[in-house]
Amino acid sequence: MDAITRAEVLRSYGTILAKSKNTVALKKSLPFQREVIEQAILDELRTNPHIELREQLKVAFLSLDIFVADEEFKIAKEYEHITEKVTALPHTADAELRELFSAMELVAESYVRMQRQVQEKQQESNLRLVAFLDSLNQR
Hints:
The protein is an all-alpha fold and 139 residues long. Helix content is 77%, strand content 3%. It has a two-stranded parallel ribbon with strand order 1-2.
């Protein structure tokens, strides 16, 4: 990938990443295919010696894993919405609280499973990134 294309990919991805303040984001909001962004990050790590930028690139690489499919995103949003409602309730709202806890139980298992999958993907990505960086250091 040439430097101009790489800069555009990284700039576009950086803009999207800066806007995603959640634990997950929609995969379809990525400005390019994940593989293109990943390659741009790895190419930049290979060519750019600036330590501060390299650290940001490592975070950006691992952050690719928070971008999930629509259904997983929907589960996360539903869980977060219910959690917000529960924490906002006055202590006297017992019936409403029980209803929200029932709804939360339905979503919680799927939410936890999705979060585990994101964490596993990030661990795999971290291992790949460390191996890539080690290969650069051995040159």
